[in-house]
Every structure is written in structure tokens, then in C-alpha cells.
Design goal:
By secondary structure, this protein is mainly alpha-helical. The chain has nine helices and no strands.
Length: about 130
């Protein structure tokens, strides 16, 4: 299974699990952070796959209840240097808004969003001389 949380994200949410049994948190960690399969964790903890599933469910409920950071994945994106610098200075919520298109105007230069100019037609006289009249 692919890990859902990084070790750093887990450390942020870990204090919210203080009322849970250590084994419950450890089983969830093994699956959600280490990427182990539920049946492997069940064997290691000498329990059933269903118990591991319940541990994961309880941990995820706490994460949702406390509005803790959502699972995320790193993205490598090549950007022009100026845009990359602006993006690095932005707060996470501003980046989310930007991705939703709400901040596009302040980050993307207006010239880049301008509509292309219409092609300029040659006068009829020039078209006739060039053999383009129809």
C-alpha cells in the first residue's frame, strides 16, 4: 500500500491520539505512514485484519474531527524563476486559493492572460496585387 501521510505530518497529528491505545496508533502508523498492508500489520501485531482496519478508521476519524492536515503528496513542478519565488513566499491557504484560480490574477501577469490580437487583414488593393483576391 502506498503511504498516505509522511512522518512529518504524522508528528503533527500524533498529540491528538493521546487518548488511544498505543497499539491502535502503532497499527495505523504502520499502514498510513509506512505503507504496510493491513494483513502484514495484523500478523505483526497478532490480531485480525479487521482490527487493523478499525484502528485506521479511528485514527482517521480523529484527524477529521480535529481538522488536522489532510493527506498530501509532494509535487515537483518546473516553473519560471519569478513565479517559483512568488509561490514559495505564499502561505498554504493562498496556494490552495491560487490553484482554485482565485489568485491567478495577482500571480500571473496580465500580459500573459491577454487575448491574442486579431490578424490584420491586408487592404483589398494589396490582396489583388498579390493574387489573393476572391
Amino acid at each position: 500500500m502506498k503511504p498516505i501521510y509522511t512522518a512529518e505530518q504524522w508528528e503533527v497529528v500524533k498529540p491528538a491520539f493521546r487518548s488511544m491505545a498505543v497499539s491502535t496508533v502503532e497499527m495505523a502508523h504502520a499502514v498510513l505512514v509506512n505503507g504496510q498492508r493491513q494483513f502484514e500489520v495484523a500478523e505483526a501485531f497478532n490480531t485480525s485484519k479487521q482490527n487493523v482496519g478499525q484502528a485506521i478508521k479511528r485514527v482517521r476519524e480523529i484527524i477529521e474531527k480535529h481538522k488536522l492536515p489532510e493527506p498530501s503528496q509532494p509535487v515537483i513542478l518546473w516553473l519560471p524563476e519569478k513565479l517559483a519565488e512568488q509561490l514559495q513566499r505564499m502561505k498554504a491557504e493562498d496556494i490552495a486559493a491560487f490553484l482554485d484560480g482565485r489568485l491567478a490574477e495577482s500571480v500571473v501577469p496580465a500580459a500573459a492572460k491577454a487575448k491574442p490580437k486579431r490578424a490584420i487583414k491586408k487592404p483589398k488593393k494589396v490582396q489583388k496585387e498579390a493574387g489573393m483576391d476572391q
